[in-house]
Amino acid sequence: MNNRLTMEDVTMAYDNRVIAEHLNVTIPDNTFTAIIGPNGCGKSTLLRGFSRVLNPQHGKVLLDGRQLDSFKPKEIARELGLLPQTSIAPEGIRVYDLIARGRAPYQSLIQQWRTSDEDAVAQALASTNLTELAARLVDELSGGQRQRVWVAMLLAQQTPIMLLDEPTTFLDIAHQYELLELLRAFNEAGKTVVTVLHDLNQAARYADHLIVMKDGHVHATGTPEEVLTAEMVQGVFGLPCIISPDPVTGTPTVVPLSRSHAEA
User: Fold this and answer.
1) Of 131, 53, 56, which Cα lies nearest the Cα of 87?
2) Position 189 in a domain
3) What SS3 state is found at 252?
4) Is residue 27 part of a domain?
5) Which end is more exposed in the chain, N or C (fewer Cβ atoms within 10 Å of the end residue's Cβ)?
6) Is 207 in contact with 219 (CB distance < 8 Å)?
7) Distance (Å, whole) CA 179 – CA 169
8) What CATH number does residue 66 fall under?
């Protein structure tokens, strides 16, 4: 099968200020891809380009060989689900009703709410441990709970490709790993998952494909074993380290060095 989502010589800009350029990126199908890199390197911009939130100044973003901007919004929404970095819920909306909005791509003015919609929302609530909060107002929830509601809305959308921009940022450490396990399970069930992550060790443990960004360019791509080296971490992040196997998974783990050890 051909890889469904690709970029060809793409330049991304905001108000003619170039953020990333000469991007030639392929998202392998049915993989868990993590986009990593220092702050301001273009990670979120790359994800926005793949979701059509930001159109390229130059080059092509392709879905199934067809330019993304040629799709109707509902066509895209059935194929690509996006969890942006920040989201604002409508005032007074309840958890269930916000998650139910994930079913919008499958609805029409004449179509009634179906059993399949009910099942999708129930599954999304259960997967994110929100079932007991379904009747609560989103405004009443903690930051971590709200983030799980947005993730649940994305899950309810049931797209084959899921794009998530820093989904673990507002979660405590237990829920970070819970979410990553959930995303990995969806990937193992056949979905293509693409997410921006800051934690290199989480990226190496859960992703099977990494995209490393630096200064608006793709610095490296490949498996965690191929990409996550001490030289890369030093060159991209400015962090002296050693790479050691994760004692649980065997995947590469970044162990930072203190200044005295780095200079020794």
Assistant:
1) 53
2) yes
3) strand
4) yes
5) N
6) no
7) 11
8) 3.40.50.300
d(CA 208, CA 142): 31
Selected residue with higher pLDDT from 16 and 166? 166
Section 2-8 average pLDDT: 90
pLDDT band at 87 (very low <50, low <70, confident <90, very high): confident
What CA–CA distance (Å, rounded) separates 232 from 253?
13
Q: Whose CA is closest to 208, among 188, 228, 222?
A: 222
Structure tokens at 246: 């994760």
Q: What are phi and psi of 257, to 5 degrees?
A: -100, 140
Q: Which two tokens stand for residue 31?
A: 């993989």
**pLDDT tens-digit readout, 181-232:** 989 999 999 999 999 999 999 999 999 999 999 999 999 999 999 999 999 9
Mention every residue, 6+ apart, whose C-beta is less than 8 A from residue 106. Answer: 78, 116, 117
How many domains is the chain partitioned into structurally?
1
Q: What is the DSSP letter of 104?
A: G
249 lies in some domain: no
Strand, helix or coil for residue 14? strand
Examine residue 245 and state whether it is found in any structural domain, yes or no. Answer: no
